[in-house]
């Protein structure tokens, strides 16, 4: 069961491979998830032609792009000749990089959106406080179970409702220990309205506990599966995609040092009562390469979830922010089709959802991949085509061909603007 307070992670679906493995290993089956690069080019060309035919829409997009460019700095050019080898620990960012990133946060430093990490205060809870909050881990307070442990709903002394994530007591499971430390360090230095809020932690003996914001409305995957009987409409799905894009853009560009989430997936996207998305579960998070030092990637163990893994990262062990972009592309396909990334019970040609959906899109039959729970209409068909077009770019086999997350957010904003205009026009 996935927790409404934390994204669930099945440990059997996590991929963990040893470091320093030769980069010449054979191609993985994950490489079949991504569309061919030639398709990516044709989709981009087609998009340009469409814009040329509709100057009004092109002007609208130009205005949106101009506005968005005011909010965030340009992405530094990616270099290809330098590598950096390091483990999965968190290092301090260079002072120059920190000053540059702090000066360019734009809207991401507004009071209701995010705050500078140096202003965060990490609270260390006592066992007495945790016991009081959860009524001694009462079974009636249990709200979820995941690979890391059990999640309880709790109430702090000041009345704040929280989710209390209690790690499994496995004495020799070093992986769980590393994930716990990583999640504490990451959550302690980030704050954004589309990320789960961190209240504090406890580490005492065998007890490892995280206390974070309680998000009451389940996961995105729950809603795509209609767990509460309500269908998630296309407008809500588009808003959720934009929320996630904002959260990941913040991690990549507006923290003191870029952070790669490494586990963007529908079960790690929590929804509030008004269907605003919050990204959770930072157990696999990793500091990105320091661009100012000339590094272009980090060589590290492969971690993530089957179906969402970047095939280039899987084959080369070279991790960059573009690995999150690939996972986001899978998430976009999931939002449009309603299907999970891997559907083992379907016929062979439909088991890998991204491969199946992108084939439908490239052959002009994208409507056949639309979630059957969604209504086919001119407005919905338009959004479907545009999101598939963006997915195609995100799923490019090579990271250099994928857009940065900031660009994904800009494109989605434009799609939402055009979608709203279509809904208000006469059809």
TrEMBL record:
The UniProt entry, under Gene3D superfamilies, shows: Phosphorylase Kinase, domain 1 (3.30.200.20), Transferase(Phosphotransferase) domain 1 (1.10.510.10)
Q: Which PANTHER family match?
A: OS01G0750732 PROTEIN (PTHR47989), PROTEIN KINASE DOMAIN-CONTAINING PROTEIN (PTHR47989:SF71)
- Compositional bias (Polar residues) spans? 79-96, 107-116
Q: Where is ATP bound in this sequence?
A: 169
Tell me the Pfam families matching this sequence: PK_Tyr_Ser-Thr
Which Enzyme Commission number(s) are listed? 2.7.11.1
Q: Transmembrane among the record's keywords? A: no
Which EC class is this protein assigned? transferase
What domain of life does the native source organism fall in?
Answer: Eukaryota
Q: Which CDD domains match?
A: STKc_IRAK
By what name is this protein known? non-specific serine/threonine protein kinase
Give the molecular function GO annotations.
ATP binding; protein serine/threonine kinase activity
Organism of origin is: Erythranthe guttata
InterPro entries xrefs: Kinase-like_dom_sf (IPR011009), Prot_kinase_dom (IPR000719), Protein_kinase_ATP_BS (IPR017441), Ser-Thr/Tyr_kinase_cat_dom (IPR001245), Ser/Thr_kinase_AS (IPR008271)
User: Any idea which UniProt keywords this protein has?
Assistant: ATP-binding, Kinase, Nucleotide-binding, Serine/threonine-protein kinase, Transferase
PROSITE patterns linked to this entry: PROTEIN_KINASE_ATP, PROTEIN_KINASE_DOM, PROTEIN_KINASE_ST
Give residue ranges for domain Protein kinase.
Answer: 137-414
Q: Which family does it belong to?
A: Belongs to the protein kinase superfamily.
Compositional bias ranges of the Low complexity kind: 20-55
Q: Which reactions appear under catalytic activity for this entry? A: L-threonyl-[protein] + ATP = O-phospho-L-threonyl-[protein] + ADP + H(+); L-seryl-[protein] + ATP = O-phospho-L-seryl-[protein] + ADP + H(+)
Q: Where is this region: Disordered?
A: 1-55, 70-120
């Amino acid at each position: 069961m996935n927790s409404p307070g934390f994204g669930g992670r099945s440990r059997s679906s996590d991929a963990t491979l040893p470091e320093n493995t030769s980069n010449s290993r054979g191609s993985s089956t994950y490489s079949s998830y991504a569309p061919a690069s030639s398709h990516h080019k044709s989709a981009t060309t087609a998009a340009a032609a469409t814009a040329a035919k509709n100057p009004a829409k092109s002007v609208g997009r130009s205005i949106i792009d101009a506005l968005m460019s005011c909010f965030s700095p340009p992405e530094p050019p990616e270099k290809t000749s330098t590598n950096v080898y390091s483990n999965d620990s968190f290092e301090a960012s260079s002072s120059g990089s920190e000053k540059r990133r702090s000066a360019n946060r734009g809207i991401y430093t507004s009071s209701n959106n995010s705050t500078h990490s140096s202003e965060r205060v990490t609270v260390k809870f006592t066992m007495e406080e945790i016991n009081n909050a959860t009524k001694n881990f009462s079974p009636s307070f249990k709200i979820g179970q995941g690979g890391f442990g059990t999640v309880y709903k709790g109430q702090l002394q000041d009345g704040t409702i929280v989710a209390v994530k209690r790690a499994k007591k496995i004495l020799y499971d070093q992986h769980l220990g590393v994930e716990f430390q990583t999640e504490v360090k990451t959550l302690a230095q980030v704050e954004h309205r589309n990320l789960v809020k961190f209240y504090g932690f406890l580490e005492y003996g065998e007890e490892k506990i995280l206390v974070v914001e309680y998000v009451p409305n389940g996961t995105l995957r729950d809603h795509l599966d209609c767990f509460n009987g309500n269908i998630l409409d296309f407008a809500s799905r588009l808003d959720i995609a934009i929320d996630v894009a904002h959260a990941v853009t913040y991690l990549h560009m507006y923290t003191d040092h870029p952070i790669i989430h490494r586990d963007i997936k529908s079960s790690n996207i929590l929804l509030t009562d008004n269907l605003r998305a919050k990204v959770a579960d930072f157990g696999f998070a990793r500091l990105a390469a320091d661009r100012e030092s000339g590094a272009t990637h980090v060589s590290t163990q492969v971690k993530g979830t089957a179906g969402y893994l970047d095939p280039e990262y899987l084959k080369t062990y070279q991790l960059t922010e573009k690995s999150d972009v690939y996972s986001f592309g899978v998430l976009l396909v999931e939002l449009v089709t309603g299907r999970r990334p891997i559907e083992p019970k379907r016929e062979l040609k439909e088991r890998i959802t991204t491969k199946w959906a992108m084939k439908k899109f490239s052959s002009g039959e994208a409507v056949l991949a639309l979630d059957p729970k969604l209504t086919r209409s001119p407005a919905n068909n338009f959004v479907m085509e545009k999101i598939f077009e963006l997915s195609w770019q995100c799923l490019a086999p090579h990271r250099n061909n994928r857009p940065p997350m900031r660009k994904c957010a800009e494109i989605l904003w434009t799609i939402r603007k055009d979608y709203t205009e279509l809904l208000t026009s006469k059809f």
